[in-house]
Amino acid sequence: MSDRPNPKEPGFSTLAVHAGATPDSTTGARATPIYQTVGYVFDDADQAASLYNLQTFGYVYSRLGNPTVSVLEERIAALEGGRGATATASGHAAQLVAFFALMQPGDEFVASKRLYGGSITQFALTFKKFDWRVHFVDPDRPENFREALTPRCKAIFVESLANPGGAVADLEPIAEIAKKAGVPLIVDNTLATPYLCRPFDWGADIVVHSMTKYLGGHGNSLGGAIVESGRFDWFASDKFPALSKPEPAYHGLTFAETFGDFALTMQTKAVGLRDLGPALSPFNAFLILMGTETLPLRMQKHAENARAVAEFLAGHPQVGWVSYAGLETSPYHQLARKYLPKGPGALFTFGLKGGFEAGVRVVESVEMISHLANIGDTRSLILHPASTTHRQLSEEERIAAGVGPEVVRISVGIEDADDVIADLDQALAAAARP
Amino acid sequence: MEQDHYPDALLRRILREVRTIAMVGASPDWNRPSYFAMKYLQIKGYRVIPVNPKAAGTEILGERVYASLKEIPDKVDMVDIFRASAAVPPIVEDAIAIGAKVVWMQIGVRHDEAARRAEAAGLTVVMNRCPKIEYGRLNRELSWGGVNSRIISSRRRLEARR
Ligand SMILES: Cc1ncc(COP(=O)(O)O)c(C=O)c1O
Predict the structure, then answer these.
(1) Which of A30, A224, A266, B106 has its CA 20 to 30 A from that of A161?
(2) Mean pLDDT for chain A?
């Protein structure tokens, strides 16, 4: 139903297959070719100058843009209902390049404390080296974001569906707070994907993705994306000089003036990718592009399987709790119904009554489910965060991120749900043995 | 910053039928957006005549600059306005007077009353858009930058004109 919010626009599944990908203009090849290429010839010196000055559209060098990568960028922009997108080498690179456009040394931002552990580390430790400061807040009370804002804050950052706890962000009031403060709301939509939730529909200004997860979907390619809604007014204040003031690296070009509602898409390529360097490989773009074609089908199956697995676990005597927001007992049940009506994703955690030891035993006892640190694969994946991904965090930070010692995370794949359940059942039985 | 909706078919028709564009507010500075747009439209085969009283009598990109639309000796199909919204009404009056068929106001430029006046005189009006960007979008060049063209097609990219 909501696949077609505007009857004049193509539906989501049509966009997933077609957006950005018209037949190759030279050969007529119907699937998008892999342009495994670095440089692109200039017609003459004048055209070269126009390209370098961003006066005309075209490819120059694949660090700034590549014909396979840009098809993927347009596809992701279309799926999110955005104006434009920039692909990056990974999800983390997307976050770096997005903040690089918004922040100056000494600037700050407010982020939900319920984030992927790697993002918490990136924001709290590595960003400090750029002299950027993050204030983490509990996202369950949206007012916390407003209270934490300072005059130097340049953004609010949340995950629509948080990794790994399955917490759902109340996007609408948080977007309202960002709007009042004149800063963009950045939403990491990795776990939900635009099939389950479109943050721009709720007032977000920028969406970031780890395309490594569900968008690619097959556990074979790293990739990231920054998507802009095209609705943020960079000129409303002096907060964002990289967009609203002349850029010295481009002879005084002002991105928001020259490119209007796709200023961020151009800035993140022309400055972010050019100078920081994390461009997406064309081969990865090709694989992720193929993944996006089946996104709606896969997400339906992921969501359906996740519900079955969550219900099984919730009824298991060794399981203390299940964080899946689709369960009526979840504190996020109402928010999930509002923001993720097709299902609150396929990644959640559960707590074992047997604690740390039981967690380790379960992940060591699964046979089909893979014990590894990734999510959003066709295969079901399992992890005990306290002994792996969240090991670098302090005990306090682990609890804040929703991953105590007893917590196991599962990324439910698209196998037959019965087989996933049977594997968990035998692993739990193995963990119960003395 | 919500934009008005103009059907692709309308924009395509304008860009196909127009030959000569008078650009009001064209800048002689090579790093200004109007200069970019003029150069791009020239490359795409349009004749662009700059209008800018401060630069009148000089040349921009090989074209003589006029002080006003009324001074242009040649036939003008479209007037492209690179000026503040408040400056639009007299430009629209001149556009009507010289027989232009289209008035196109750049991104951020919008004047509803002047637009109604132009439409009543039989002109087609586009506001808050850039012809360079729309040309690039409709010919899928904007897609090269990862911009959402909103075009779904099983046909090869064939440029509207050269
Ligand atoms: C929600 C979320 N955001 C960002 C990332 C980082 O993405 P990448 O591994 O592609 O850098 C991850 C990776 O697990 C993630 O789960």
Answers:
(1) A266
(2) 95
Q: Which residue, A269, A224, A334, A286, is CA-closest to A101?
A: A269
pLDDT of amino acid A398: 79
Domain ranges of chain A: 12-291, 295-432
Span A116-144, average pLDDT? 96
Task: Give the structural domain span for B80.
Answer: 8-139
Q: Which residues in chain B are contacts of A50 at CB distance < 8 A?
A: 39-40, 43
* A:B CB pairs within 8 Å: 110
Distances (CA, A) of A158 to A145, A285, A314, A373: 10, 25, 27, 21
Question: Left if phi > 0, otherwise alpha if psi is -120 to 50, otherwise beta: which for B107?
Answer: beta
* ipTM value for the complex: 0.91
| Cβ–Cβ below 8 Å for B133 and A260 | yes
Gap between the Cα atoms of A322 and B9, Å rounded = 53
CATH of the domain at B49: 3.40.50.720
Mean pLDDT of the B9-20 span: 96
The protein residue whose alpha carbon is closest to atom 7 in ligand 1 is A91
pLDDT tens-digit profile of A202-250? 999 999 999 999 999 999 999 999 999 999 999 999 999 999 999 998 9
The predicted model gives A275-299 an average pLDDT of 98
Q: What CATH number matches the domain at A295-432, 3.30.420.10, 3.90.1150.10, 3.30.1360.120, 3.30.830.10? A: 3.90.1150.10
- Enter the pTM of the model: 0.95
Structural domain count, chain B:
1
Cβ of residue A230 closer than 8 Å to a chain B Cβ: yes
Q: pLDDT tens digits for A393-431?
A: 788 877 776 778 999 999 999 999 999 999 999 999 999
Assess if residue B149 is contained within a domain. Answer: no
Contact A55 B130 (CB under 8 A): no
Q: Which fold has domain A12-291?
A: Aspartate Aminotransferase; domain 2 (3.40.640)
A389 lines ligand 1 (CB under 6 A): no
CB contact under 8 A, A23 and B133: no
The single-letter DSSP state of residue A220 is -
The mean per-residue pLDDT over the stretch B20-43 comes to 94
Q: What ligand 1 atom has the least distance to the C-alpha of A374?
A: 14
Interface of B with A (CB under 8 A): 1-3, 30-31, 33, 35-36, 39-40, 43, 107-108, 130, 133, 136, 140-158
Ligand 1 pocket: which of A76, A88, A90, A92 to mutate (most atoms <8 Å of CB)? A92
Contact A224 CB / ligand 1 (< 6 Å): yes
User: What are the CA-CA distances from residue B32 to residues A54, A124, A161, A174, B70 (Å)?
Assistant: 11, 40, 43, 37, 24
Residue A118 CB–ligand 1 contact under 6 Å: yes
CA-wise closest residue to A389 among A111, A123, A115, A94:
A115
pLDDT at position A8 is 73
pLDDT on residue B5: 82
Q: Write the DSSP string, A1-23.
A: -TT-SSTTSPPHHHHHHHTT-PP
Instruction: Inform me whether the pLDDT recorded for A2 exceeds 70.
Output: no
pLDDT digits (tens, 9 = 90+) for A55-64: 889 999 999 9
pLDDT for B1 equals: 30
